[in-house]
Amino acid sequence: MATYDVREIRTPILEPTELIARGVGQLTDIVSKEMFAFERGSTNYVLRPEITAPVMRAYMQHHLDQSGGAQRLYYIGPCFRAERPQKGRFRQFHQFGAEFIGAPDPVSDAESVALMMAVYTSLGISDTILRLNTLGDEQSRPRYRAALVKYFEPYLDDLTETSRRRLDQNPLRILDTKVPQEKALLVEAPRLIDYVDDESRRHYDRVKTHLSDIGVEFVEDPMLVRGLDYYTRTAFELESPQLGAQSALAGGGRYDLLSVEIGSKTPIPAVGFAAGMERLFLALDEGVAEYDNPPPDVFIVALGDEAVREAFKIAHALRREHKSVAYDLLGRSMKAQMREANRHGSRWTMILGERELAEAEVQLKNMETGEQRPVPIRTIAQFIV
Ligand code: AMP
């Protein structure tokens, strides 16, 4: 995030339900059936199901526009949705994402995609599919929606009940269907791109050019939509084919009208992405890539009560020098502690017994070379490099 000049914002886990209902959309599954909401006093609160609307709320409430330029903010934290838990889908999960608020230009859309991709590629997850589309302006979707409804009308009897309901309430969601006979109907259905305004098409072309300029590969997917009217222009989604049913790693797009939906008098142009941490971990676990915490700088093996007391003091002093320290102060045997030291994979192991204590020194062992030598306690920090 720092490489992309993006700063962290932390918002509360509880938000007014009203904000999420408006900011995510009444017609979405999230708001219609997945909110953990409750009443306190005269207000209804919800455990946030996502973090874009809260970030936009914070931006507006705290006048972040007055700090000049576009705000480039990232977040990371828990979200809650009352879903049926399964692999890659939880009731409490974690999202990270970035929002560029006050940024109307196509470079920002491209940067948002580039930043999202950089997170995955930097962790070695490269076997992904990036899908891209444009949704046009606020007039494009009503036009397209009408065309879609008209197209499906003669086929009403062939649609599932769910799709008939969607056609009535939120027709664009039919494009998400998994039912084979409905998918077949979609092949001939009108395409959103044919209803998109010229300005949005130009914007889309610029986004694609910027992505191509930096070698980000994508596929254009005319069926990729977001059902809500405040999403404008760019929409994108990142998928990992290895993950099975829950293959969506992250998604995002431009949402120039969200601000108006949640109370701004004028639109605040914005674009961003949201990603699932657990899905990211799944992608790593599938053997796509390895990631582990770096080992501590030193592991301390201490034998006897006095040595344990000294080890605790040494660890404290080293940590103040920004060295990372691990130990196992369970009073176990030397052999058990050495095994633990090996397991931690630190470069150095420090051994502290009664004899060393009497000399005010420790045995310092370089775990790479196996070399071991006594070092005075006061000078330890300079040897841990
Ligand atoms: P969304 O806000 O629905 O666009 O979700 C953004 C990302 O969050 C998805 O691509 C997933 O990676 C992740 N995600 C959404 N819902 C869940 C969930 N219930 N459990 C785990 N990850 C989720």
Q: What's the helical proportion of residues?
A: 25-40%
- What is the arithmetic mean of pLDDT? 93
**How far apart are the termini?**
28 Å
Count helical runs.
Answer: 14
Report strand %: 15-25%
The main pleated sheet reads as: 8 strands, mixed
- Outline the low-pLDDT stretches: none
Core attributes:
single chain, 385 residues, alpha+beta, BirA Bifunctional Protein, domain 2, Rossmann fold, 3 domains, five-stranded mixed sheet, 14 helices, 16 strands, 23% strand, elongated, binds adenosine monophosphate
Report on this model:
The protein has 14 helices and 16 strands. 36% of the residues lie in helices and 23% in strands. With 385 residues, the chain is an alpha+beta fold. The strands form 3 sheets. Strands 1-5-6-11-10-9-7-8 form an 8-stranded mixed sheet, with helices on both faces. Helix 1 crosses helix 3 and helix 4 runs parallel beside helix 8. The relative contact order is 0.12. The protein folds into 3 domains: 203 residues, Bira Bifunctional Protein, Domain 2 (BirA Bifunctional Protein, domain 2), CATH 3.30.930; 57 residues, no CATH class; 86 residues, 3-Layer(aba) Sandwich (Rossmann fold), CATH 3.40.50. The structure holds adenosine monophosphate.
